[in-house]
Amino acid sequence: MSKYWSEITKNIEPYVCGEQPKDKKYIKLNTNENPYPPSPKVIEAIKNAANEDLRLYPDPNCDELRETIAKYYKLDKKQVFIGNGSDEVLAFSFLTFFNQDEDIIFPDISYSFYPVYAKLYKLDYRLAKLKEDFSINVEDFLCENGGVIIPNPNAPTGRTLDIEAIKRILEYNSNKVVIIDEAYVDFGGESVVKLIKDYSNLLVVQTLSKSRSLAGIRIGFALGQEELIDGLNRIKNSMNSYTVDRIAAKAAVAAIEDETYFKECASKIVNTRERVVEGLKKIGFEVIPSKANFIFASHPEINGEKLFLILRENGLLVRYFNKPRINNYLRITIGSEEEMGIFLEKLKMIVAEIISKDK
Amino acid sequence: MSKYWSEITKNIEPYVCGEQPKDKKYIKLNTNENPYPPSPKVIEAIKNAANEDLRLYPDPNCDELRETIAKYYKLDKKQVFIGNGSDEVLAFSFLTFFNQDEDIIFPDISYSFYPVYAKLYKLDYRLAKLKEDFSINVEDFLCENGGVIIPNPNAPTGRTLDIEAIKRILEYNSNKVVIIDEAYVDFGGESVVKLIKDYSNLLVVQTLSKSRSLAGIRIGFALGQEELIDGLNRIKNSMNSYTVDRIAAKAAVAAIEDETYFKECASKIVNTRERVVEGLKKIGFEVIPSKANFIFASHPEINGEKLFLILRENGLLVRYFNKPRINNYLRITIGSEEEMGIFLEKLKMIVAEIISKDK
């Protein structure tokens, strides 16, 4: 604690992101990255953009990228906001739409960055307690509040909320913004982008980090009616006019345009996921049904933290959250078919060994 | 104004950045960009980084870049903070070090983003009125306050504050953070990085956008003792863990390492600046002494706004601020030798025409 820190700096609890290890080679299944490289067209676009124009500021409005995303989703360019990763888009959204002294609501088990944003902006929040099977109780969101945010599919559970439930939440909260965080929607979830025309309070947030294999390039975006996007621009332009660099914008355009490649990769991940789920069940894991590029699983006879550490020693990196209700679970990103084959084989041996020792 | 906007969103006054025109070809002297392209080594580094690793998140701590900058400035890696452009670094700094209900101080004529940040975070501020010649009155900063920020060289004036004056400000305000914004220091100013070891309240902010020709890549950084950098990291990690993408980090490392190229470009700009100053004086302009890559000038017989508009029509884009005390001035970025030759020639004719018409 430094005397130079502001009261806010002293009181916040920063987010701790998944480890980016440098000590040795892991099968890295801890930060929901895509196992497949970005489209070759993305690589080409970056190389083409590596030129003398880098001396100039980027387009602060990201017009070309906004047009590309708008076309992809059949929206207007004015309904698209671009940010430096969806974390930045979410950070801006909390400040743009939520007020102090009005509780916002999100699930008790969800993206652990939400309470961090709330604390940063001194926003009060209520946690909607998920059911025992980690599904959302819609009624929890049908009450007075200062705004709602729900990841769909939820993280780290992978569970989805159906579109009719989201409509009910949007309708009940018509004077408050409802943010649907669709970071993982491309792996089998159903997007609510199509509801934007009917709901002026709906903001959909997506990212290129997962399904477009571009975690390293930092592009996220928000979709909503123009007045919501205008609000986001007001906040952005009060912090940093140029959040997206020239290279990243070009890479993102190429990634969105190469729909075939994107669909192939997403489909491979979905197929692998289903096989991994079966494999895990066979060795005694309980697996939450997932529509994301990760699965959330626990073994009734094995301590989650212990298993996490043993896997780590064996070069298998997954994510473990030491939090109430989920402290026996592991979040396992879906890697390539080959990686998951090795993972399952090693895991099977480790599980057998632990169980035999414990007996 | 939307009912969905938070109170903060409703009340802020976003920054308006210099135009990035798309309508026609200009000699673009309005946003202090470098006329020379980035180092060829930067282009090469970007092309090498355009690979399949982009599927992975970047290093959230930017270790390689921090080490490179630390080495360049003979600091420790722990004394370096990296951000997505110096605007982001400044936005984080205001939140990290300044408190509501304590006036911060900055010059009345300085970077127009400062009051925007203050408004965003509901910080009170006092403006230190520059003298008639736009120099800083040091006494204005020797009083009770919640923190200080001074650009050195100042923008848009180009004037510098000498190091002894900065020491007095640091010593008087030993319990408050003093930010020296050195965005333009590489064009003849004297950096106060060397004071960091002696002043725990000093934060120096720099950028790669100007002297390293990388406005398009978005890298800024802050230098200071470890407790200040730790505070910045707390705020960053409460908003966005990965603000700097893989490509930008690699480009920045190459840019810092190619010191020879950087010095050549900066030196060419300084030489051109001195010739432009002479040229402007010859046609009747009053020019504020500049150590930046721009000059601030006014013509006693010609209205600044009118001249700005006529220049624009003639394909010469400079920056005009319609603000008290400086509304007869133009801020002119130093372009290449060739650009500035054309600029001076056209300006000379325009000035002659205006004056002859007005007679």
The name of the CATH architecture of the largest domain in chain A is 3-Layer(aba) Sandwich
Structural class of chain A: alpha/beta
Strand residue content of chain A: 5-15%
Globally, the shape of chain A reads: globular
The average pLDDT value of chain A, as a whole number, equals 97
Write out the strand line-up for the largest beta sheet of chain A, numbering strands in chain order.
Answer: 2-8-7-6-5
Largest sheet of chain A: 5 strands, mixed
Separation, N- and C-terminal Cα atoms of chain A: 47 Å
Protein chains sharing the most extensive interface: A-B, 86 and 86 residues
- How many domains make up the coordinates of chain A? 2
Fourth CATH level, the homologous superfamily of the largest domain in chain A:
Type I PLP-dependent aspartate aminotransferase-like (Major domain)
CATH class of the largest domain in chain A: Alpha Beta
Q: Enter the CATH topology name of the largest domain in chain A.
A: Aspartate Aminotransferase, domain 2
- Count of individual beta strands of chain A: 13
Gyration radius of chain A, rounded:
21 Å
Write down the oligomeric state.
homodimer
Task: Report the uncertain regions of chain A.
Answer: none
The helix content of chain A, as a percent range, equals: 25-40%
Contiguous helical run count of chain A: 11
Topology pattern of chain A, helix = H, strand = E: HEHHEHEHEEHEEEHHHEEHEEEH
Question: Could you explain the architecture of this structure?
Answer:
- 2 copies of one chain form a homodimer.
- Chain A is of the alpha/beta class.
- Chain A folds into 2 domains: 22-36 and 260-358, Aspartate Aminotransferase, domain 1, CATH 3.90.1150; 40-257, Aspartate Aminotransferase, domain 2.
- Chain A is 37% helix and 14% strand.
- The first copy, chain A, has helices at 7-11, 40-49, 63-73, 86-97, 114-120, 163-172, 226-236, 246-257, 259-282, 304-313, 337-358; strands spanning 27-28, 80-83, 104-107, 125-128, 148-151, 178-181, 202-207, 220-224, 286-287, 294-298, 316-317, 319-320, 329-333.
- A 5-stranded mixed β-sheet of chain A has the order 2-8-7-6-5. A 4-stranded antiparallel β-sheet of chain A has the order 9-10-13-12, covered by helices on one side.
- In chain A, strand 9 (286-287) and strand 10 (294-298) form a beta hairpin.
- The interface between A and B is large, with 86 and 86 residues.
